[in-house]
Structures are given as structure tokens and as C-alpha cells.
């Protein structure tokens, strides 16, 4: 349940983030069905917030040439860890 809340918070934070410089944008599972997968990326950070993780995922997605990404895993313990599927 906590993971779902964190993912929802991450999604909401990305919608509210108008100043993000990364060209890749976050999509939900319904939107992802119409896109072509091109692999995945993951990030790990000590401390920070969901928004920091989203920005790191977006930067990695952009560097990989993806136009979109979808968060598939998000955990928080001693550190944050997130994995995202990349799409063309």
C-alpha cells in the first residue's frame, strides 16, 4: 500500500513539475500500451524525495533517447530505488 501511495505521489509531483528540463515525460500504464518499449533504467539515491527520483529517471530516459517512461518499481528504505520502462 505504501508503494502505491509513493508511486501516486511521484506521478502527481511530475504533473506539477512544469520546470523540469528533461524532454522525456512520465506516462501511466494505459498510455504506455500505445508506445514501443526500448528497455529500462533504474536509479538509487540516499535521502531526497520522490521528486528527486523522478528527475533522475527523466534525465536517464532523455539520455537514452526515450520520449517517455513509466515507473515500474519504487521502494524506500535506507535509500530510494526506482526502475522505469523506457518508450520511444
TrEMBL record:
<keyword id="KW-0732">Signal</keyword>
<dbReference type="InterPro" id="IPR051096">
    <property type="entry name" value="BhsA/McbA_stress_biofilm_assoc"/>
</dbReference>
<dbReference type="Pfam" id="PF07338">
    <property type="entry name" value="YdgH_BhsA-like"/>
</dbReference>
<dbReference type="InterPro" id="IPR025543">
    <property type="entry name" value="Dodecin-like"/>
</dbReference>
<protein>
    <recommendedName>
        <fullName>YdgH/BhsA/McbA-like domain-containing protein</fullName>
    </recommendedName>
</protein>
<dbReference type="InterPro" id="IPR010854">
    <property type="entry name" value="YdgH/BhsA/McbA-like_dom"/>
</dbReference>
<feature type="signal peptide">
    <location>
        <begin position="1"/>
        <end position="22"/>
    </location>
</feature>
<dbReference type="InterPro" id="IPR036275">
    <property type="entry name" value="YdgH-like_sf"/>
</dbReference>
<dbReference type="InterPro" id="IPR047775">
    <property type="entry name" value="Stress_YhcN-like"/>
</dbReference>
<feature type="domain" description="YdgH/BhsA/McbA-like">
    <location>
        <begin position="35"/>
        <end position="88"/>
    </location>
</feature>
